[in-house]
Amino acid sequence: MNDANPLRRRCLQALVCAPWVRTASARPLVLRLSHVVKEATPKGVALQQFAQQLDAVSKGRMQVQIFANARLYSDLDEMQALQLGAVDMLAPSLSKFGRIGFPEFELFDLPFLFETHAQVHRTMQGRVGQALLAALQRQRLVGLGYLDNGFKHMSANRALLEPQDFVGQRMRVQGSRVIAHQMRVLGAQPVELDFAQTRRALALGVVDGTENPVSNFWTQQMHEAQTDLSLTRHGYLGYCLVVHQRFWQHLQPQQRGWMQQALRVALDWGNAMAQQQNERDLAALRATGATRIHHPGDRQREQLRQALQPVYEGLAQRIGGQWVQAMLKDRGKP
């Protein structure tokens, strides 16, 4: 191959070797699933549950090979790898769909949009959530469902409880214009970094802080590089299970049915345990005594909420105010 793009070259080589490309009758059919977080995170264990369920319902005829912790592809290249066929399935954060032509997915990044997991799930199962999955067809992607991690909190080497606390801080963000706007509104400097590089960047002082659910903070050992964690619950982090249309259409109807059945069980199970896992990880973090844990009061949360209203206005200007209004309607009350 003479392709000058190293990632594309790797992807094309992997596509040639894909078992579903080589032969439709290969047994078992092995799905390659890549993700960027540790196995012990809510996403990691839910995907392991999916692998177990698929093996069980297909009686071993379909299996899943999981490449966790960015072992195969990183934050910045996994979507291209899926589109080129180098992997069969991903579970990217919802933020990542914005940079491949679906800015509506960044609705989930709006600060202080959700107060409860029930609101999140109503939105995902409602008109907006289902319309977003259907829209993926524009890029020949098939959205199979949503998966929780949980609510995000702010970390740094200082407490981040009020808008003025963020001024001048360099904050790692994932590739979302909504999240970057959020940091700029607070007076911080957003720095987009691959998730796998974040722990090292914090330790070296390349960035001052970041936002994460507790499970990511704990499993990536960020407490060793951050002195303070502020439990702001300012945003939500979730994922979308996605495959390429080419792969999905190649499957037999029975195989698609097995996958959907296994996913229903795994996603229900994963969403039920995600909050529990974040709570366990918070208890483990407290036990270390390595990080000061702060609880913003109602007044401080309201100050942050009010300061971040321009983020809603900015997204409405980009994608249309009707999307934001529909999201708020689907969300409902806590």
UniProtKB/TrEMBL annotation:
Highest taxon above the source species: Bacteria
Annotated keywords: Signal, Transport
Family recorded in the similarity comment: Belongs to the bacterial solute-binding protein 7 family.
The protein's name in its UniProt record: DctP family TRAP transporter solute-binding subunit
